[in-house]
């Protein structure tokens, strides 16, 4: 029988991934009468050797004050509002699928990041957040006083 190291947080990480997957699913109660979900952001998260990158589709932002990005306890939170600037009489609306209103999304990050070095850009309806990883030099060789 081979021995393997005990990973105390392995089950917690798996549970976090399952919860993230569960809460990113569109629920029927969150859909409008035309079948499109409101307030749910589509986010891709990947990591490189030096940073964690989140890419989020948010079409319709008009100014940077319309979106807020926060990192707390290694959770990325993106929130804001999309306001449509035109007025249409309700009786003339045939289909309304473009989202307007408030949105919010929180995502657990796969690595520990430094909030101080985060850079965010918004272009063509896509928000990209680049977060530098904390260098983990926690492994240290300990000398033993051996008698």
From TrEMBL:
Q: Which domain of life is it from?
A: Bacteria
Cross-referenced SUPFAM superfamilies, in alphabetical order?
A: HSP20-like chaperones
All copies of domain SHSP, residue ranges: 34-147
PROSITE patterns in the cross-refs: SHSP
Q: Which CDD domains match?
A: ACD_sHsps-like
The cross-references to Gene3D superfamilies, in alphabetical order and at most eight, read: 2.60.40.790
Looking up Pfam families in the UniProt record yields: HSP20
The family line of this record is: Belongs to the small heat shock protein (HSP20) family.
What is this protein identified as?
Hsp20/alpha crystallin family protein
Q: Which organism is it from?
A: Paenibacillus aestuarii
């Amino acid at each position: 029988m081979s021995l393997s190291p005990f990973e105390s947080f392995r089950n917690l990480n798996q549970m976090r991934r399952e919860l993230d997957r569960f809460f990113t699913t569109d629920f029927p109660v969150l859909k409008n009468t035309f079948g499109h979900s409101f307030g749910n952001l589509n986010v891709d998260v990947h990591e490189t050797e030096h940073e964690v990158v989140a890419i989020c589709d948010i079409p319709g932002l008009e100014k940077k004050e319309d979106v807020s990005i926060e990192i707390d306890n290694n959770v990325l939170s993106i929130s804001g509002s999309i306001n449509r600037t035109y007025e249409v009489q309700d009786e003339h609306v045939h289909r309304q699928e473009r989202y307007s209103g408030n949105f919010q999304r929180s995502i657990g990050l796969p690595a520990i990041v430094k909030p101080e070095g985060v850079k965010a850009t918004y272009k063509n309806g896509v928000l990209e957040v680049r977060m530098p990883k904390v260098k983990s030099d926690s492994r240290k060789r300990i000398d033993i006083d051996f008698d």
